[in-house]
Write a structure and sequence with these properties.
Radius of gyration: 21 Å
Shape: globular
Largest sheet: 8 strands, mixed
CATH architecture of the largest domain: 3-Layer(bba) Sandwich
CATH class of the largest domain: Alpha Beta
CATH superfamily of the largest domain: FAD/NAD(P)-binding domain
Order of helices and strands: HEHEEHHHEHEEEHEEEEHEEEEHHEEEH
Oligomer: single chain
Number of strands: 18
Strand content: 25-35%
CATH topology of the largest domain: FAD/NAD(P)-binding domain
Distance between the termini: 36 Å
Structural class: alpha/beta
């Protein structure tokens, strides 16, 4: 159908907004909140294609982390040392700010610490991590001020089929993704930020005053300043961006009695990750083994990844234990040639905050503040 506005809609409800944030995930909502706090009288709209922000915001593993040693070493192959260390520091500061702004109970945060484990096929990765342990700790201290972020621990105490040596980071933890999204959404709505959820943007047009968005029903909303925060989906509307989708798949078990571990775990340069939640094991990743197939906007998970993750649980995480899979889901992250996020002003009316590379939980508080400072 075609949308024909009433006088009330045109003069009041759809009156030009000062700011429109496209993408109502945890990044977009925090951007809208920061703008409202800086400009209390501003008219702000939050726009999202779905009733829930389905990209990655409500579908991630609930990690509050800033990178394992092997992940950092891998990042150094693609970006400069200063960029990698500053990104890790932004993630660390973001976790601290997230807890401070919303509170541990409201987001289900627990400072459990994290482990990086290595199985028999990753002995070379372990050797590289051990050889660079002091260097990485020193470089991270120069930007974070924290001593010995990564410590050597005994992996055989975890009752997993892993090598004897692992690494522990006391500064990371876990949170409840559902609680985090609900808490941030409640704050955004309490500030009278106007939601346009279920609004599928078909066109974005530059105007004399800013930008105009329209959907398939020709319902148009306009603004002076447009902030793009829909992560991987930004490249659909702006194909020139170095942003490609990356599907991340997760499975979760039914409750398991007497789980022998508590915390978040990294492996395979961060491409495999798992944790405990409600006496269950949640595990995700593995897309590096099926990269071409996982570069997609398709939310339907694949049997290959599901079987890969189940096998990892069976052989590495829960050897000699019976478990059953309860759920399997996917989220869509945003990647590019670099792991660094894109945060910039494109022109006098358009700002970008996209390509989180799977780090949106930790980066949200910092990047949303950066965007607000640009306005």
């Amino acid at each position: 159908m075609s949308f024909y506005p009433s006088y009330w809609e045109r003069s009041i409800l759809l009156k030009t907004f000062d700011f429109i944030v496209l993408g109502a995930g945890i990044i977009g909502k925090q951007i809208a909140i920061k703008i409202k706090e800086k400009h209390p009288s501003a008219r702000i709209a939050l726009v999202d294609k779905y009733p829930l922000p389905l990209g990655a915001s409500t579908r991630n593993a609930g990690f509050a982390c800033f990178g394992s040693i092997s992940e950092i070493l891998d990042d150094l192959k693609h970006s400069s040392k200063n960029e990698v260390m500053e990104l890790a520091n932004k993630r660390r500061k973001g976790i601290t700010q997230l807890v401070r702004e919303f509170g541990t109970e409201a987001i289900g945060y627990r400072p459990t610490g994290s482990y990086e484990i290595f199985d028999n096929q990753q002995s070379i990765d372990l050797e590289a991590a051990l050889n660079n342990l002091d260097l990485i700790n020193s470089e991270l201290k120069s930007v974070t001020g924290l001593d010995h972020i990564f410590e050597i621990k005994k992996g055989n105490t975890l009752e997993m089929n892993v090598l004897k040596t692992c690494f522990y980071n006391r500064h990371e933890g876990m949170l409840n993704t559902g609680m985090l999204n609900e808490t941030i959404a409640n704050k955004a709505h309490s500030l009278h930020i106007t939601p346009f959820y279920g609004y599928d943007v078909k066109t974005i047009a530059r105007t004399n005053e800013g930008y105009e968005l329209s959907n398939e029903d020709n319902l148009r909303i306009s603004c002076n300043q447009l902030i793009i925060a829909n992560n991987s989906f930004a490249s659909i509307l702006f194909p020139e961006l170095d942003v490609v989708p990356a599907r991340g798949q997760i499975i979760i078990t039914n409750p398991i009695k007497d789980l022998p571990f508590d915390g978040i775990f990294h492996s395979d340069k961060g491409y495999i990750y798992f944790r405990n939640i409600d006496n269950r094991v949640l595990i995700g990743g593995g897309r590096n083994h099926f990269k071409d197939k996982e570069t997609t906007y398709d939310f339907e998970g694949s049997l290959e990844i599901k079987e890969f993750l189940e096998n990892y649980l069976r052989t590495i995480v829960l050897p000699n234990r019976h478990f059953e899979i309860d759920m399997h889901w996917s989220g869509i992250m945003a990647m590019g040639k670099e792991k660094l996020p894109i945060v910039k002003r494109e022109n006098e009316n358009l700002l970008l905050c996209v390509r989180m590379s799977g780090m949106g939980v930790a980066l949200g508080p910092i990047l949303s503040s950066e965007i607000a400072e640009m306005l």
